[in-house]
Design goal:
The chain is α/β, with parallel strands linked by helices. It is built from 6 helices and 7 strands; from the N terminus they run αββαββαβαβαβα. Strands 1-3-4-2-5-6-7 form a 7-stranded mixed β-sheet, sandwiched between helices. Helix 1 packs across helix 6. The radius of gyration is 17 Å and the shape is globular. Bound molecules: guanosine-5'-diphosphate.
Length: 220
């Protein structure tokens, strides 16, 4: 193997290991808030998770952190929409944004979501990256596109993470990656690399941990 390739492989292995180590640390609920005047102090770099309700966001956060019930599905219509903060190993804040896109969401609820999330995205200094979760089986929906525009306008760097990849064939996964990729090219704040994941099979979890660890404070 050429030396350059071997170096790259070593670097990638080191990144995966750094991600494994960070996500093996304790992860604790810090705060949940529905109002932006009650955000926790911005002490750590933050990575946020956004997606349509039922996209598999809670499952993904639980798979990343190796917990069964850290993040719960609480995004049922009518429930208070809140942003939940989880501190990981004293080095990174995981931020669980409320799910969007309920079929029958009343207009007031949609406006509330927009206001809460838009204000967070625009004003939160330590926010480094938002993972935009998209169900592999469905690809981008119009409501996701609206959120992508919101992220672009907020200049909030984001990366598409495909969920439930175990539910479709490899060829269908390739097709959805290609279609999403083509759309991402037109979005200013979008990271070009798409990460396919499955909380069920563990596919892509190590890679996502590594990607998020790049934003964490260095270990002491
Ligand atoms: P949330 O509303 O976005 O937090 O979604 P949940 O994490 O509660 O997941 C919604 C549903 O999808 C649940 O029934 C999960 O068991 C299922 N689910 C989530 N992730 C996966 C996955 O990676 N693979 C499969 N097969 N099912 C999943």
């Amino acid at each position: 193997m050429p030396e350059e390739d071997a170096n790259q492989q070593n670097e990638e292995a080191a990144r995966l290991e750094a991600g494994r180590l960070l996500f093996a640390k304790s992860c604790d609920f810090v705060a949940g808030t529905a109002t932006l005047d009650r955000l926790p102090p911005p002490t750590l770099p933050e990575v946020a998770f956004a997606g349509r309700s039922n996209v598999g966001k809670s499952s993904l956060i639980n798979a990343l952190t190796g917990r069964n019930s850290l993040a719960r599905t609480s995004n049922t219509p009518g429930r208070t929409q809140q942003i939940n903060f989880f501190e990981l190993g004293g080095r990174l804040m995981l931020v669980d944004l409320p799910g969007y896109g309920f079929a029958q969401a009343p207009k007031a609820q949609v406006a509330e979501w927009n206001n809460l999330v838009d204000t967070y995205l625009k004003g939160r200094v330590p926010l480094r990256r938002t993972c935009l979760l998209i169900d592999s089986r469905h690809g981008l929906k119009d409501v996701d596109r609206e959120v992508m525009v919101m992220l672009d306008k907020a200049a909030a760097s984001y990366q598409v993470v495909l969920t439930k990849a175990d539910k479709i064939k490899a060829s269908a996964l390739d097709a959805v990656c290609e279609a999403v990729s083509a759309e991402l090219a037109r979005h200013l704040a979008a990271h070009p690399v798409i990460l396919p994941t499955s909380s069920e099979s563990g596919l892509g979890i190590a890679e996502l941990r590594a990607a998020l660890t790049d934003f964490a404070n260095p270990s002491a």
